[in-house]
């Protein structure tokens, strides 16, 4: 037997119909009555026959929170410890634990859970319930499991203040911190929704967060996507009848009107208390929390998302911190984003996105991913999609287009070496802007895409940063870098930082701005360009002008870009989602080669962004100077950002410079910067020469292994012609899927 706490606050609805108070209110104040009725109905329809199941460590506040939630919903409240276990055993839980010991207690607790049933209730689990698989499976069948995620330091403080000394698993030689860490794996396995709970948050606030989280879980309609070339006020009836969700935009990549997808209601915001709760967390834990809030569980359940994140970042990165922050000099810090398998920041998205894509696509169709790269994306996307399960590789293939003469020799060797049975590289006799524009045109060519679907049962998708899923993992590392500075005691939470990023396609910079919108205290976002400085001029003047501009090959090829695709998402945001204006601007850019922002929009842009650029000579000089003074070698892109940061920072707060690639990828330029007279043209020889310098960081492990195994290999090369590219695509589909 167990007791049910059933709260009966003053009610407007009685069992026999409308109370006299309700009737009086309805007649005298119909608007107020309608609001109260809507609130009452919403609360009572929230549960139905389902249970809200609160889960978390001892001391998380499950019992208190459960009673408040039950009161708000006017439904039964059941505490497993008080209302199930103790009445069943006729003794206290602590006495039972002392009597049986750890393992036998868990088994007896699980047996009691298997005999328990309830509906339409709020249930507070014991801290150890999730450790019994069969019992949890039984309870979860009829409920939504809400994980009250409280920082371990807060739990330890609470339990010590209560004098709690009997916890399942606690024994001589095993600390409470160890017990809490061990239990996390079980909590992560079972929850549907996570609610972050800091140390000083009142139970009433936690209860409201639980209710909000349950409402979100039950209503995926709230998280739809629109094109940057439409907007809330400009949606057509057809658009309203065909709403797009995260899983749709991951697969579709580019909107049918040529725009880019953005969340209709914007990104989630974290409170300062929620961010502070992540200071002690690992990178993987931070990624899970942030991405859970950005991806609705109807698209990818939390347990599956956790599995994908563990796969992406667990063993594929050489540094246990994944994206460590290193002090460079003065107030400058480097965010090292090159510890992934292909040595660039692209790995953060492209170790994750292939698994998201494979989960989201329908099983009835094959998919060919099209990618354009200016260098680092190529090897990262090839590596990422080649790590899919064999069954997924049979239905998902990828072709990577890159400028044949517009990437470094090592980058090219790496892209060729990363080719697998479902992933190929094609060199194009043009520049990156042609490759990127060609892919956009292919996606919007309904005749060609329709032909591929009908003839070969194959759809096209994109994995460039135009795909919304590519941006989310980048938000994570910008947020994580700030939290690391707090954790290291460099700043206290709430103190501002500046961020400086080598910027080409604007995706990395946009992700930093999104992190700022979500609550990370970023003051200035500094865009660093090389001599292809169209973006810098735009930020300074509001004029985006490609007339007479030709792409200049530089030592930092990943930012050798004139058309910054993700800028469209940013302009859509600052223009208050005016899709008509965005369409006008980018149509003008396409047809006339330029556009100019209105003065008010330029003013808003310049509140968010500042920009500078750097010549090749200054880039090499920065590499030499930093190595001479610190022994650290910057890659050519990070050096561009370093030069611009030196010029534009005001030194009143720390500045985080994104180190977007490992210097090994650009060995000839690095050797030149270090003033080595003779440079062997063999990429492997260049890396061996660099390794003799015993520099920090050491030569990249993944890059060295790739070059050792593959050499230069074979790849296809084609002319800069749309019909030729489409022919290549059709041939690859025939060879792989047919």
From TrEMBL:
Modified-residue entries (N6-(pyridoxal phosphate)lysine), positions: 346
Cross-referenced Pfam families: SKI (PF01202), Thr_synth_N (PF14821)
Pathway: Amino-acid biosynthesis
UniProt xrefs under InterPro entries: P-loop_NTPase, Ser/Thr_deHydtase_PyrdxlP-BS, Shikimate/glucono_kinase, Shikimate_kinase/TSH1, Thr_synth_N, Thr_synth_N_sf, Thr_synthase-like, TrpB-like_PALP_sf
Keyword Disulfide bond: no
Entries under SUPFAM superfamilies matching the protein: P-loop containing nucleoside triphosphate hydrolases, Tryptophan synthase beta subunit-like PLP-dependent enzymes
CDD domains tied to this protein: SK (cd00464), Thr-synth_2 (cd01560)
GO biological process, one term: amino acid biosynthetic process
Name listed for the protein in its UniProt record: THNS1 protein
Organism: Chloropsis hardwickii
Gene coding for it: Thnsl1
